[in-house]
Specification:
Eight copies of one chain form a homooctamer. Chain A is an alpha+beta fold and 167 residues long. Chain A has a four-stranded antiparallel sheet, with helices on both faces. In chain A, a hairpin with a 5-residue loop joins β2 and β3. Chain A is globular and about 45 Å long. Chains A and B meet through α1 and α3 of A and α3 of B.
Chain lengths: 167, 167, 167, 167, 167, 167, 167, 167
């Protein structure tokens, strides 16, 4: 169910701009991206939310292509949290799902779970608004993935209404 | 059973060109490769098959050496699908088996499943015709590996009869 | 002169959608991308142009984020041309300039020229239309960078008028 | 329980230097590091402890940032033990826990366990004194992780009292 | 002249805390780091300074160990600027010099200039205050290294007086 | 039992050359290595043994340091078998055990099993003679790890008597 | 002159099997490869030729796809010669030229010369016979590239007549 | 002159143990390695020598195979000096020459100078005694390569007489 949502969304987006004949795709396709300021707002709220829990984290916000837009690392968070937060953000974006929903998905050695650049532990959430996929948020450094995810979601919630209206 | 097929095939090919004495292998060995146009035909049918399911994918066709001949990525498919499709194609070629048959093969941590450049999730199929191994096809981006494989096989089916006759 | 053009373009694009106050960037920014079919048309014309010169090449078309959209490699082109064509395409996109103009730019050991993923030899051209940067094309495999670039430009020319009108 | 200890420690450290208002973090934060001589003392005792068990090992002591300060490899220890000891040391530092306590933590394919540079097998121990995290020790080469850990802990024990007093 | 400054600084720092006998280094050494908020202030001013020049950049602030503390990438800046800005920042920190002063330093193929993770083009500046090395700033994306450096320095200038006083 | 054998061997070797006082290790230690010709003899017999089973393989013989001395790849064996055979050979050498005995050793995600350069599937055997560890053999390409190991052992058996006498 | 030879050769090969209409490439293309035994003969003669000069080397013979077929390293040759010999062999194959002819080709920082997997120093020679490109040979370890090349060519000369006749 | 010395040495070593007929190499070859204690003595003197110049460095001693035996990094030396010192040590070992003599050797882009794992800047010296190559020393962190080399040589000088006698 949840796994299919990305493709349904994509279909809607394309059908809105595609021609009737599937052999005649438009040459140019319009996509939306969030501003750097929006990404920074998300990241700051994630940091602050975790600080209120007495936890220092790293947070990465990636754009629609999976490349970092903003990275903040609290001062005592270890450097490996940079990599982990980025890879959770990219996994959430690429699979259009919170990474907590992806944790049990890969059952075998050598499966897609091994591909470089993606981590499927809780703490990543996709950014969507107005039917568009816009990016991903990843958090690492809290003592549990659940708390990582709570801080990531707090960051998203802080801008989501405005994103929906901006669309 | 299925795991042995690659070596039986190889034996036939070599015996066709080898001398009677196994110590006297021929200096030159003739191998067949598919043209770029054939690889592109396979890739396009894979893309179109998945679009009919409202899914956008990336598809890679690798040559006999495991190097990409053609890569197509539908416009909204995330970039990680490039890597995944290539590694499924290479796994299918190298083990001469659909990757769906290889999913349960590796049971241990640290086994062959960890080697770089191979992914053993469904979505990869080998290209064979006339008793020769010719390449591999890998698809990534669909909500399930089964659908990835369906699109990869559709690409293969579109050229298989002609490949058998061309041989 | 040429080196500045990317930023002037960017300024125009942003000013077209930005608010008067630079502290109030819009939350969402709209960008354009070319379709997979357009990328494939570019790549096929590049291949065919070089074949007419009795040369086999690899060609990569990258999207606005620098990720491959289409890769074609002619059947006898060595595999390293895959990497080279992709990195020329990304360099042309990232610096918004034909790579032939960038060849003498970096004078020192250890400069930006060493960064992974970019090659500054002739054969890469950016894709622009309607004042937008849309992607990059890279070609490798011809006996000279000039011929690589000729084939890349032929690919671009084949779609440029339609891209301008599509905008 | 143990998993939370790092954050409690961090909280204490920050509260000791932070202002009352969480919006007004100090610009400069003071951290402590062990000297190279201390790191070397730790490493030598680890080597000697394992030699007494007729075992040759490699030992890495990393600083607070996870970068090696001292590495010793006994003469017949294989080179891969260099990498393993460093990654155990970094894991112990980053998670502020003996790696033996982290061995069962990651249950899924594709989880945080796959991130580069960290190994979660027994043989890594964090260096803490006076409420501060100061580094990590990793040992590899013994026939069991338990013995690796014993040698790492022996190295730490040899300096711990002095570290507590130095604080 | 300038190249020696890092070691003179270091000497001062150590002599301030070392015992008379060089064989008796203290076990613990105190170092200073800037807060995440300070790093973010630096990065934001760098972005804004370049925007006033109609240029979009990426900026990385690394801590004393060379690991990123804050990364901001303006919305249309290509992803490779992330890597370049980080490596300029690390080079400025590691050599304790603006990278513009390091551009002509390495004359030979295969020299230190090739080491991974460092770029010696203009746009990197070290962060020092009160006789301590505190981190590095790197900027990439402007049409010239000089403008990259101008924006990096503007970021530093915005906090330098406060850093000196905080010491 | 088997896991400890490497260290017992090492102890014997060292005690043979070490001084009575463990604080006074000799400055120079003598180690033995096999010649290139011996490594080639091993590799050729491994290839021939597998050919008799109608199987084409790749075989790597590594020296005492884990670096390849000889690599042979039969003409239709896929290139990934090069990597796999080398990593099995290095694993057998480093753990001084056939890799078939190591297959079940690592139970956890993120354990030593993930370290780069080692594969713990059947097909690797150590080379020992006269109480010395001399290298490792790895085979890949057969339809089962058992057959890979059979060919590797056949290669070893072909030279073992002579190695024992040469010692 | 020399640089064009690869493409003229390729044209001949294709025209021999292609249809009159360039839009109708054949689906299957036949290529030739040398046997493992031939590759081994080349490598052994290269080793022996250098030994007669009192030099120990590493030699790699790559197949048509650039993947190693045979690697021999004399017993005291350092491990880096493995990498260098392989990358010279691949460069000679990919550019269809002795690498000694390619040494001055790349004039700029950031050019094709930086691509991974290719080294353009003397010591690599392509394997051609009967108008076909069949592989490459690379040698490293001699005190000069000229001697490396001499040994590589001796290896080729030892089989060239037979290769021409086998065609 | 100097460049040939490694091969003359090697010849002597082999002729000392080889049979009269060059086709009958011995199966086992005896090589010497320095103990870990000797490597540590070298490294400590290098550190101390540089400290007397008010400079903090990193020093790596590699064994005959180029793998680190001992690494020491003074407490304020940046982490990149770890990599640089190791790669200077390996270059000095592999080319059997101080790296200061190798600085002008590679004149072209894409030459051997680009191979991973070797740095050809001053600061690396080989360890030889009794006609045997035994390892390499690399130093990084001083304001000039000359000072790096001075500290490396001081380390070597401290043990050289004993090494010659131990032989």
């Amino acid at each position: 169910m949840k796994k299919n949502s990305i493709f349904i969304l994509i279909l809607i987006m394309i059908s809105g701009i595609a021609h009737a004949d599937s052999d005649e795709q438009p040459m140019l396709i319009t996509v939306k991206r969030i501003s750097m300021e929006t990404a920074l707002s998300i990241a700051k709220v994630a940091i602050e939310t975790c600080r209120k829990e007495a936890v220092q984290i790293a947070v990465t916000v990636v754009d629609r292509a999976g490349d970092p837009q903003v990275i903040l690392r609290d001062v005592l968070t270890p450097a490996v949290a940079l990599t982990i937060s980025e890879q959770k953000a990219r996994a959430a974006l690429s699979f259009n799902s919170p990474t907590s929903n992806l944790q049990g998905r890969f059952k075998n050695h050598g499966s897609v779970a091994k591909v470089d650049g993606l981590i499927f532990s809780a703490g990543g959430v996709p950014i969507q608004a107005g039917g568009s996929i816009l990016g991903g948020i990843g958090v690492s450094g809290a003592p549990s993935g659940e708390l990582d995810e709570k801080c990531a979601k707090a960051g998203l919630d802080a801008v989501l209404d405005d994103l929906e209206m901006a669309d």
